[in-house]
């Protein structure tokens, strides 16, 4: 998971937006439309980042297909300190 987090957050151009999405989901579960509105980012951009985060077991979905909510995975939450370390080094 640590290598995946370094890649997702620090190793690619969209890392800042993915970190913002993670922080929003830490506050409470949201759907893609809510995240796009909260972060002032295009819906398709948010969907792209969510797919990447889902592929690397950072987020998971719950609920119905329409308006499905995204949650942080237990596996990711276990690595929260590593996420914090990575984001601190980006600032």
Automatic annotation (TrEMBL):
CDD domains: HTH_ARSR. It comes from the Archaea. Gene3D superfamilies: Winged helix-like DNA-binding domain superfamily/Winged helix DNA-binding domain. Pfam families: HTH_20. Signal peptide: none annotated. PANTHER family: TRANSCRIPTIONAL REGULATORY PROTEIN (PTHR38600). This is Winged helix-turn-helix domain-containing protein.
């Amino acid at each position: 998971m640590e290598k995946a987090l370094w890649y997702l957050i620090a190793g690619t151009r969209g890392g800042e937006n993915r970190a913002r999405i993670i922080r929003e989901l830490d506050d409470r579960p949201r759907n893609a439309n809510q995240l796009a509105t909260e972060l002032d980012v295009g819906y398709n951009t948010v969907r792209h980042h969510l797919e990447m985060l889902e592929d690397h077991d950072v987020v998971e979905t719950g609920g119905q297909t329409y308006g499905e909510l995204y949650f942080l995975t237990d596996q990711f939450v276990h690595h929260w300190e590593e996420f914090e370390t990575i984001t601190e080094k980006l600032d």
